[in-house]
Input
Amino acid sequence: MKSNPAIDDIDKRILKELQVDALLSHAELAERVGSSPASCWRRVKALEHAGILGPAVRLLDAGKIDLGVNVLCNVRMRSHARASIEEFEDFVARRAEIMDCYSMSGDWDYLLRIVAVDVADYEHFLMRILLGHPSVATASSHFALSQTKYSTRLPV
Amino acid sequence: MKSNPAIDDIDKRILKELQVDALLSHAELAERVGSSPASCWRRVKALEHAGILGPAVRLLDAGKIDLGVNVLCNVRMRSHARASIEEFEDFVARRAEIMDCYSMSGDWDYLLRIVAVDVADYEHFLMRILLGHPSVATASSHFALSQTKYSTRLPV
DNA sequence: CATGAAAGCCATGGTAA
DNA sequence: TTACCATGGCTTTCATG
Output
């Protein structure tokens, strides 16, 4: 499964623009990608329908709402039984402070990114919530000193 | 510097809603947070002006545009001279395949998340681009088997 | 068959009270 | 906060290459 059914150059430009500004009108979008509003509208619909073009979201400045602490946390599971895995991934999905989670190759099973207001807040999450989970054997936390880059803009 | 000047409950609800759907009209938004459209409009403007409410972006399905490979990469710098740091962070900002970058405490200086189309694509990035950078001493790459969770929705 | 132009309806943003 | 109005975008239709 390589390339998708018919993503041409104009589609790519649409994706590029919409990744940067989801509030663009179809008229402006058409102008920027060199097409007409109606055509743009149809293409956007098709891209949405194909699941390529996802939701429009508003990004917040984490620091400004007192969530300045990013912690990267490696997790090792107690068991790799299917039930354990599912239970843990459900848990991850439900916890709002867990922003991202990757199932990893290598020494650790998962890598989590957690946002917290301060170190004490994270300590509470780690001790009472994460390590309290029955599927979790051990965890190793690494604090980010700063978020040098954070992008939602995929290279199309 | 704890809480921000006057973020009340309605503001929080606005932030919550807009994080999930940036395309909400002020009328719908007002209904959901229990306020009037005009008031919502002013609040949104204020939150934008304060830098709390950031850009509206459209999220793409990385897998659907052949960027299914996520790599987490630890980087150690050759030197911590200011010039080295700045040069590296500029480089990070410019490279589109580097999605996120955290300056870390602990053994490594940075943690990068890179998207790639496949392993060969990543290998090229690692060998020719990242390790080719004069500020980089060494790097350790870890492949994500899957992206279990990816959220842009901060808990307000 | 997809595109581009045109047009009407409707909802929205912004203002005034 | 509510009510209003004008603006502009969305969506469909139609003709064209």
In short: The longest helix of chain B spans residues 37-49. Chain B has a mean pLDDT of 94. Chain B touches chain A through 62 residues (CB under 8 Å). Chain B has two domains: 9-49, 62-143.
